[in-house]
Amino acid sequence: MLKNNWAVAFSGLLNQFRYIVNFNCCYYNISEYLIKVGVHVLGETILLNKKILVSGADGFIGTHLCNLLRGHGVNVIGLGRTFTESKKNLAEDHVLDITNKLKLRELVQDIQPDYVVHLAAAKIRSVKLSDYRIGYETNFIGSLNLVEACQELANFSRFIFLGSCDEYGCQSVPFEESSREAPVSAYGVTKLAVTQLLQTLARAKGFPAVILRPSVVYGPGQNVDMFLPALIQTLLSGERFKMSQGEQTRDFLYIEDLVNAIMQALISPKALGRVINISSALPLRIDGLATKIAQLIGAESEMLLDIGALDYRVGEAMNYWAKNSLAGDLLDWFPRIPIDEGLRLTINSVRATRVIN
């Protein structure tokens, strides 16, 4: 209660002044920033000792999110396919495939979570017809199973679904939440199907869903099947890195910014039923980004870039970046880690891991 009163009182006082500070070439309004601090403290109070079930807790995003939630006194229950010893630091962890409807329902009824953050997904970005079936069974049916189990809970506060900007597909940029989606992959279309399911349930039954659409997430601990960690790992090994011509643009979001957005989505009353982009809103060409990373690594790494050695993926979106103003309005969220800082943190993490191993 003391924290609640402090946050409300502090917000009122801060409305009395406005100062602008130039920090790392980004302008921040101090009063608005400190109000966000008050909201964050209030959020800690709301979530303290609550049960949050995180699907995909064993993955890259899930690991970072669970660490953040645990640091705020949340009882985090992880749901995944495998948990290594280093990740078994949750209140509970359960190995279960979300396509198993009966076992998933039993588990959710046993846990009785207050909140669910649904991260689990099959990240299939191909256009092969067989991959659409895999995406449908895991991403849509698995999500439907989890939603059905949550609807049976007596005291359930919120369901956070991690969608993707892949749902926009070949739509014109910048992607906006009001745009009509045009997915071009199994991943994009099955994510969109879940988004539409949740919005329908929110309208028809008041199901407390929030849909977040992150752009391209990166950071320490990411698997090398993604472009940035594969590039960094290869260059640090002194090997040549084959890539496309790199003319496509991408919107890169540091992992810490994403998990902070998820934290805000858990507590913001304005977010219910909404689709919200979580992005840097900064389009970067892939060839320029690869060169920047090589320069940060040093040791003539730029000479190892084999730009143009690979063809573009079939159906690949050449322009991919999203507006994030709605996240500021509904979540009081904005990205705080500049790309140069995020890349350095990621490169240093990969270097440290290589030394340990």
CA-to-CA gap between the ends? 47 Å
- Reported by name, the CATH topology of the largest domain is Rossmann fold
Q: Please, how many domains? A: 2
C-alpha-based Rg, rounded: 21 Å
Average pLDDT, all residues: 88
Describe what this molecule looks like in 3D.
With 357 residues, the chain is α/β, with parallel strands linked by helices. It has helices spanning 2-14, 30-47, 60-71, 101-111, 129-151, 186-205, 227-236, 255-267, 286-297, 325-331, 339-356, and strands at residues 20-23, 26-29, 51-55, 75-80, 92-95, 115-118, 158-162, 209-214, 216-218, 241-243, 249-254, 275-278, 283-285, 305-307. The longest helix is centred in the middle third of the chain and has 23 residues, at 129-151. The protein starts with a helix and ends with a helix. The model is unreliable at 1-39 (pLDDT under 50).
